[in-house]
From TrEMBL:
Superkingdom of this protein's organism: Archaea
One Pfam family from the record: AI-2E_transport
Stretches for region Disordered: 359-388
Protein name according to UniProt: AI-2E family transporter
InterPro entries: AI-2E-like
Membrane topology according to the record: Multi-pass membrane protein
Manganese is among the record's keywords: no
Keywords: Membrane, Transmembrane, Transmembrane helix
GO CC, one annotated term: membrane
């Protein structure tokens, strides 16, 4: 038996080291896949904005920082609003007798001194100590969930920031070490990159516009109808309507249809002939929060590089299988699979040399030759005719 030469043995050893590192890093990444995919979504959703800001300020790092601030500030505002609503709901849900008991015990100087001297004994003597303990336990549990979510959000934002700032370095490394212009790897990655920008950035703009429209529609409805058939928490429901717009075809139906059913029930209970109010709301919501996004906004903003049905299944099945991050992972997997079918599979099946030219039969996704010229709002590519 002839042993491999020293150089070949070293190459095998390094390949084994690389495989070990790949397994370790892959296991780590799998644990945080939701964070990484969400960071990727933020990156593609913010990249066109970052490019516009970079053209204005002339500095990539500053542009990345300003871009994230433009995203983080509205996000924190949203979280603050939801938190205030949750606190208000929690206050309403608490037993008024519990709050009164605590207030009564703490309303005298003796009670304050006793609380400072022996807080455990003081709280133990309260009639509702068990309820206080349960509320504190629930509050600490919610605080842990909030802290965990904040950590993952920080990691996702950090990842997107470094991609926005140093993405050109990654592109340069890929071109030099793996495949430059005209190579199959470059064609595949370029097409995937263009499709992801089209899908993710288009959804960011569509969701933002629908959210604004929903805020106007919901609050406008409450301004013109009697209070007996008013929408509870209209702004919060409008935000949820915007989030529901991520899913094509489903869009705001997940929110405004149940809201309409609730308003119909309120109108039937009132008995004052107010059925016109929920029916009018349904018509207005369907036109502005469903028909307008589907028929006008999404085709204009997102482009038509991917089939609508594929995107629908990507969002629905991705969320059903993976959970919340499936909304971002599903489209990523579909884009990877579609471009693999586009660029690689035909030559593999026919035993021909690999070529960067896409499959003319499939007609889905961006043409790799045009991928570098994709506009910020999603230009139509060679597969546009088959989008619907």
């Amino acid at each position: 038996m002839q042993w491999p030469r020293e150089a070949e043995r070293q190459r095998v050893a390094w390949w084994l080291v690389g495989l070990f590192l790949l397994l370790v890093v892959g296991r780590f990444a799998l644990h945080f896949v939701g964070t990484f995919v969400f960071g990727l979504f933020i990156y593609y959703g913010a990249r066109p904005i970052c490019e516009r800001i970079e053209d204005a300020v002339g500095h990539r790092g500053a542009a990345a920082t300003l871009t994230l601030l433009a995203i983080v500030v509205p996000g924190l505002t949203l979280l603050g609003y939801v938190g205030l609503v949750a606190i208000r709901e929690l206050t309403i849900a608490l037993d008024p007798g519990l709050l009164a008991a605590v207030g009564e015990r703490s309303s005298t100087p003796d009670a304050v001194r006793q609380l400072i001297r022996d807080p455990v004994g003081y709280l133990t003597r309260l009639d509702n100590f068990g309820a206080i303990r349960d509320q504190l336990t629930a509050g600490l549990r919610q605080l842990g969930v909030f802290t965990n979510g904040l950590v993952h959000l920080t990691l996702a934002l950090s990842m997107s920031f470094f991609l926005l700032r140093d993405g050109d370095r990654v592109d340069e490394w890929f071109r030099e070490e793996i495949g430059g212009d005209g190579s199959v790897p470059h064609a595949y990655v370029s097409a995937v990159d263009a499709d992801l920008q089209t899908v993710y950035f288009g959804n960011v703009i569509t969701v933002s516009l629908v959210t604004v429209l929903a805020v106007v529609v919901y609050n406008g409805y409450n301004a013109v109808v009697p209070s007996a058939v008013a929408i509870p928490f209209p702004t919060l429901l409008a935000l949820l309507t915007g989030v529901a717009t991520f899913v094509p075809l489903v869009v705001g139906k997940l929110v405004y249809v149940p809201v309409t059913g609730y308003l119909v029930w309120l109108a039937s209970q009132d008995g004052a002939g107010l059925l016109w109010a929920p029916l009018s709301f349904l018509v207005v919501a369907f036109v502005f929060l469903d028909l307008l996004p589907q028929a006008v906004l999404r085709p204009i903003i997102s482009g038509r590089s991917l089939h609508t049905g594929l995107v629908l299944f990507a969002y629905v099945l991705g969320a059903a299988y993976f959970g919340w991050y499936g909304l971002f992972l599903g489209p990523l997997l579909v884009v990877l699979a579609v471009q693999f079918l586009n660029v690689v599979v035909p030559e593999l099946i026919h035993g021909e040399p690999l070529s960067p030219a896409p499959s003319a039969a499939l007609g889905l996704g961006h043409d790799p030759e045009d991928a570098d010229d994709v506009d910020a709002v999603g230009d139509e590519s060679a597969g546009d005719e088959e989008a619907e």
